[in-house]
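#random but structural
TW: two for the price of one
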Amino acid sequence: MRTKKGLLSLLVVTLLALSLLAACPSRTTEEASPLSQTLSEEGIEYGGRLVVGFMAPKETMQLTDVGYTSWSCLTTQLLYDPLAHYPLPPDYYEFHPRLVQSYEVSEDGLTWTLHIIENAKWHDGEPVTSEDIKFTCEYLFTCPGWEPEEKANFDRIEIIDDSTLNFVFTKPTEGWYVPGWWLWNPVIPKHIFEPYKDDVTQYPNEEGIGCGPFKLREFKSGEYSWFVANDDYWGGRPYLDEVVFKYYGSLDTMLMALRSGEIDVCDSALVPPTNMEDLETALNVEIEVGPGNHRYSLSCNLHKEGPLQDKNVRHAIQYGIDRDRIIEMVYLGYAEKFDSWSWEGSPDHSPNLPQYEYNPDKANEILDEAGYVDTDGNGIRNDQATAQDLVFELVAPAEEINLTKTCTLIAEMLLDIGVSIDFQTVDYDTFYATVYSPADDAYEIAITDTGGGPPPIGDWIWIEAMGWGSGGDWWNPSYYDNPRYNELASLLSEAPDMATRLEHVYEMQEIMSEDLPYIYLVKPKCISPYRTDKFEGWTNSAGGMVSDMNPWSILNLHLKAQ
């Protein structure tokens, strides 16, 4: 599933203040992996322990924590199988079998027949059957602790046999591409979770029994997770013997561990450009710079009465922000401008969107024509309705240094168009409690992170602009509500072909570019450092070598040939 990656991964990082340096299974522990180093059919040697460093820890094995951080997302992908595998660019819409090996869709788009792998087993030896998939869809997607956008619109699920089942949907759901929820959601064992079917997220899940390529050896809350290869995995055991996820209480400590070889790779989300020079001098450390899966915008609270309700004001603010200056001064060049939430390079990204290049003259012209003039001569324009100065509160999480720097620059820039910014920083808890409750009217503008990623993995992103009551509840901090946008977003899954889908998603992007409920800023590039002395087979994708959207390095890595 696609959960609150950009949002809630930041929330969990509040625990950094604890400065907990986690213990980790020793490389010389007496409880070494029981797997021997043998050769695969391809002649590749099995073996080795991959250690991944994280700064947002995992606190529980319960499914409530399945996708809130990169650590949690990757745990799900190692222990459980979803219905289909993650695509790698440019194969955005190609079906990659995992538990579902093939499927057919009826002509009316209402019935999907799924054929699952016949020799899959749960880690406790029980067979994986159609009953497990039916149970997962009926009791995981609809339980109180799960995400609302994951509740697929099926009417019923019919078991045909142990490896075949029908999904009967309430409205046509075309099958020319696999929906994103096939990739994100773990299939869970009915024989373990059934006693908790009223809310499966409440099961302690301490053993983490799945049917995925790795088994859970040990988990210590907030410190580490220790996985061993599943020797009986239906798809063939992974090359690595072991994988360890380890928590670090500070960026400096984590990067020091990478330099020393204590870890082999780290979650790239928080590696800033200022660390590039130091990492480039480290022995056996390579760095790849690629597309990041974070996009920063100014979210305008459109529930609160005031000048921000006027689209002219939002347009002027967009023109009044020099994004090139932000890229150079805050991100040292390692960021890009963007014009849409759609993933650049994918067919979903409209090529015909306004770019809103920095143009303070244009911004001033818009505000002049809209009647916002400086009536009292203090340099700040006035709201013609109230005669009040055009002053907006802008809030950012204090822990995010790059975001606070960005907001400081924005406050300076907007003075040139007669708009004053009252910039405030708050802690993460206050930030998210405030910003994601727009109807409380406790904020005016906030700098927010819109995640997303390549389709269909990132299709969930469009919900963040759907109206409250139309699917975007809580996810939509701007309280934006455009009926045509809501209609198009709901039609995406029903598009009978790519051409129709592109018509819908292009129009959605055009609507957002015109309405600007979110004022586009920058998307930082992903700086992904990793070690090259032990393993080969690294695979870079959205978010870096190892990320919530990229399990491929862990699945492909193997010991370097001697």
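TW: number two ↓
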Amino acid sequence: MRLKSIELVGFKSFARKTSLDFGVTITAIVGPNGSGKSNIAEAFRFVLGEQSMKSMRGRRGEDMIWNGSGGVPRSGRASVKLIFDNYDRAFNLDFDEVSIERVVHRDGISEYLLNSSVVRLRDIVELLSQANIGASGHHIISQGEADRILSASSRERREMLEDALGLTAYLYKREDAERKLEKTAENMREVEMLRRELAPHLRFLHGQVKKIEEVSRLQTEISQKYLEYLGRESIYLRVAQEQLEEKRAAPQGERKVLEVRITQLRTEIGNKSKNDNVASKLVVLEEESRTMTQKREQVTRRLGRIEGEEALRERMVKEVGVIIPHAQVEEFVRHVEQELKESLTLDVSLLHARITALLTRTKEFLGRLMHTTSEQHIEQDHARKAEIEQELHDLQGKEKDITAAIVKLRTGMESERETSREIERELFSGMARRSELESILVQLSAQEQILAKERETFRLEFAEAGALIGSDAAGFDSYPLTNTHGEKLTVTEIFTEDRALQQERRRKLERLKIRLEEIGMGNTKEILQEYKETSTREEFLAREIKDLEVSARKLYQLVEELTATLQTRFVAGIETINIEFNIFFKLMFGGGSATLSIVHEEKSRRSIALESVSEKNETTDEVEEGIDIAITLPHKRIKGLHMLSGGERALTSIALIFAMSQVNPPPFLILDETDAALDEANSRRYGDMIENLAQKSQLILITHNRETMSRAGVLYGITMNSDGISKLLSVHFEEALVVAK
């Protein structure tokens, strides 16, 4: 790579466009003091990204712009452009020629352009570091800064040497990795904070989901138990009804036949003994007995209905609430309507009083109903039941008396006519059997009443099952009923099961329904959706933490590797620079020695290593490395750099700068009057070293020294007229020799 030219427009004293071509290895820039030749060196600093206005003899960016004169107005901007030959691709760009330009405006804003495209300063710095053109400015040495490397601190001196050794790219990479490491640590803290903020809400939602799961489990269990209960109960009621019908069919048929036969026998007896009072009485008593039996059956059925109504009302009161008789409601409504009609003719004050009284009466009416209605109905049911039970008891007593009278008459008639005995015996036998059959039918009727109440209970449970489990309740008849071994139950096994077990199933259902009501849930769909979204967010953050931890470990490892590489290359570079430094020093001073040594200093700092990576996050004492310089002069004893004279410091600085340039040569070196303090003998040595340096780097020399000028291939002369504008003259090698002499 080779520096081809520099172009200045409106920069400091170069009001007009000025170009300097660097077609030779050594170019010298000469001119009287105040002509602006040092502005060339500052233009290089400017375009290469120098941010310190002080180092360019200014206070702000505006000071870099031509400020005008009597004949030429001031410029609105200043620009400096460097053009490089990039055939060897020293810059990692696919261009044969690379231009770097910086523009500053009056408002202080700077722009950087790479091949006319706007880029960042960082892009420029990283590109230049590829060609060993670093930020420390070791390749641009001004007259007043030649001593900077000696007066700098050991740490600053190390930075200059790192720059000269081409380690800037590694330093940028390490700094970038450290910034990313710090950013990763910050991101991890932010993610952890988000997870901590999310945790309480997630725990709450988790609890809600547990409740929803419990509700779902209860609903499933209730559904299963309801289907089992309804399935068993349906089968039991069906089989019980079928068996009841079967039991009732035979007695009813037999009784019907007996009724016909008894009627026939009575007719025969009547025909044979129409005047027989005993027989007449017996017939009357038998008829009374039959009538009494029918009444007893009716009363028994009424008693069954009352008991069923009582059980149903108690259940409805328990599940629904208070039942208000229709008559009481109608009476109260009529009263309210009458009161309202009368109120239409009243004035406002009386109307208010009437409405207040009506509201009071309404509250009293509802209060009485709430406290008394239900109890009144229950008490009425109990009273009616007691009356019917007493009536049944009286009928049973009368029936018993009639039966006793019949037995007595029958006993008396045994001694009567033998001709009628067989008929009477058959009649009495038939009547006795009829009584037995009627007793059986009464018992079956009682069973029918019980079965009717169980059917009503089944109906209510089925309705409640529909409210709880929906249309699934209708599938009870297809629900598989099995025993504890998973074997399908037969209808006989279901029917013959102890009824207490079925009642226990019903009680369990009631307990489950109470538990379900106690839990109670709102919109479970929204809760589940929110829980899913929150869980997904938490899982994402957890994965983010893991990814960040992996990135942090990789970055930490990269920092360690770059640090090790930097240290290895730095130590090796110092050894090489030491050799060249000692050679140049002896050449400059005719003897003596000069060495660089690495020194260690402790510096307290905050560890950048992440706790998750290095398990450290506390303030530590870091050991920093710096560079110390030790020299010995021939025929002179010194104890430190501070004892050197100005000329000795200049020669030592030049020797070190040239040594640095030999190890990792930059593409170009700018020396701004660094030879000003040299005498004639040292100037020749300086010239020899310049020619030696020119074998590895282009040299741009700003000088007054004739010996230095004589080594240049091109001389650029800078002049300034009364208008304050710097102008450029060029002289080639042959002419340069004449000028130098």
